[in-house]
Design brief:
mainly alpha
Length: 503
């Protein structure tokens, strides 16, 4: 077998892992973000935290990126224990901050909690969705290179036919995350016509067309390894994003935003019925002749074309979630209710998922079927609820320390009945005016650039390094240098105030 064939075989015919293990992995970045914020507050309180961008970048990279690299490689069998250690570190930091609090120093904890629940938040900024999208982007960036090394567990790679792989969630999570911040949500008060929205949508996808064609031409010209059953011969994820964007734009013009969940359910149920009652499923899995033919454009790209229906349903579910999360809420107690609501919906979906897998069909990323969409939405809601809860805990820590500054976190403002003196430390002047260096904000502003950069550097490393026969230490070194370089480039772009956007 050639090197190309060996690499293709290395990432093919895999069956994934359990939903529980992936859920544990999703909780890890949420608690890493919490520990990062608590660590910054603790260092500020000790007057030993430098505002130098190099120090900020180092802290963010060590706390946010390195734990994910280790969780996907050498500590993959100990994700629960790694999560437990991170939670214990967070609990220790919260206790330390509470003991050294500069506000309500002699007030009982019950009274402090009562006052905290009445605190108001700046309604114009919600860090939860930004944290979701950045965490998922970092995970995808690590996984697309790590999967080519032997130290990456095969159960985390994309599944062949049925199963739940960590990388399967990555692609679904990207669609769900982009849906939560789609233009239709941000411009929901405007009433432009059908033609205006459609033209704007067509204009916005041209960078994706160029990226999709560029990837196709590059892969075919250098004979880069491909997993054909992922999307097909010519199709790739960029083309899926283009179709999803155009179809959902039309759907969101025809149907009200607050009915997106009904549209999502209708699409995926009808798609599943079509899979079960027509020859569509057999065609996706085995081609028109039943022997896996790739002759003809439709046969060659049947997985990518058919699965777009599932991703459209995921996008519509993401729109509904974004609409709910972006509602104007002020008090902390209101956001606690949101976190609990998201968690309850996700538990309901996971329960329904078990029934669907037993009675209908197992999760299939290849077809993006009903079970796959339910799993993606349920896991995304669990992730969001974890991020919301950790944001609330971080806000409590900021509430206890006068003048605490944490980039990419909620800003506390004066609550009703709070005196002027107290409101001064809830919103420090520096936090309103200073642009603090922050890796999360940097990645959030240039997500498409980060995704593109990660794909390019992954390809270059695969061409220069024999990933299949790399030792564990060498693979870890390459992964860390790869992530450090990509993050640093995006971070420097952010410091220079540059946002790479083509439309």
């Amino acid at each position: 077998m050639s090197q190309k064939q060996l690499k293709e075989a290395f990432i093919s015919n895999l069956n994934g892992t359990s939903v529980l293990e992936i859920t544990q992995g999703l909780c890890l970045p949420a608690f890493c973000i919490l520990c990062r914020g608590l660590l910054i507050i603790s260092l500020q309180h000790l007057s030993s935290f430098s505002h130098n961008w190099r120090t900020r970048f180092f802290v963010d990279f060590v706390v946010l990126v390195i734990p994910l690299v280790t969780a996907l490689t050498i500590l993959s069998s100990f994700i629960f224990f790694e999560l437990l250690i991170v939670i214990m570190c967070g609990a220790g930091l919260v206790y330390q901050i509470y003991q050294r609090r500069t506000c309500y120093a002699r007030v009982p904890v019950q009274k402090i909690l009562e006052k905290f629940l009445q605190v108001s938040l700046e309604s114009e900024y919600n860090p939860t969705i930004s944290n979701y999208r950045v965490s998922n982007s970092v995970f995808v960036a690590i996984a697309i290179l790590a999967v080519d090394f032997p130290l990456f567990p095969r159960r985390f790679a994309k599944t062949e036919l049925y199963g739940t792989g960590a990388m399967d969630f990555g692609v679904g999570g990207l669609v769900f995350g982009s849906a939560m911040v789609c233009p239709e949500i941000r411009r929901r008060k405007h009433r432009e016509g059908f033609g205006f929205h459609l033209l704007k949508s067509l204009y916005s996808v041209w960078p994706l067309i160029i990226l999709g064609l560029g990837r196709l031409i590059t892969i075919k010209s250098i004979e880069y390894q491909e997993h054909l059953t992922e999307y097909g011969v010519h199709w790739n994820f960029f083309f899926t994003l283009i179709v999803v964007k155009l179809v959902t734009t039309v759907l969101l013009i025809v149907f009200p935003l607050n009915k997106s969940w009904i549209v999502a359910i209708s699409i995926i149920v009808l798609y599943q019925l079509t899979l079960d009652l027509t020859p569509l499923k057999r065609f996706i899995l085995y081609g028109s002749d039943g022997s896996g033919t790739r002759v003809g454009l439709l046969n060659a790209n049947r997985e990518g074309i058919a699965s777009t229906l599932g991703y459209v349903a995921i996008h519509m579910a993401g729109v509904q979630t974004g609409l709910y999360v972006f509602r104007n809420r002020i008090h902390i107690k209101d956001w606690i209710k949101v976190a609990c609501c998201l968690l309850l919906v996700s538990i309901s979906l996971l329960t329904s998922l078990y029934i669907v897998q037993v009675k209908v069909e197992a999760v299939s990323r290849r077809m993006a079927n009903l079970a796959f969409c339910m799993w993606i939405v349920a896991s995304s809601l669990i992730f969001l609820s974890c991020l919301l809860l950790t944001d609330i805990i971080l806000s409590f820590a900021k509430f206890l320390i006068k003048g605490a500054l944490v980039p990419c976190s909620w800003k506390l403002i004066q609550s009703p009945g709070t005196n002027k003196k107290h409101s001064d430390f809830l919103v420090p002047k520096a936090e309103r005016e200073e642009l603090s260096p922050c890796l999360i904000t940097a990645l959030n502003r240039n997500q498409l650039m980060f995704f593109l950069l990660s794909n390019i550097t992954t390809g270059l490393i695969n061409l220069m390094v024999d990933t299949l026969h790399s030792s564990t230490l060498w693979a870890l070194f390459v992964l860390h240098v790869y992530m450090f370089t990509n993050c640093l480039i995006i971070y420097i772009l952010y410091l220079q105030g540059k946002t790479v956007k083509f439309w």
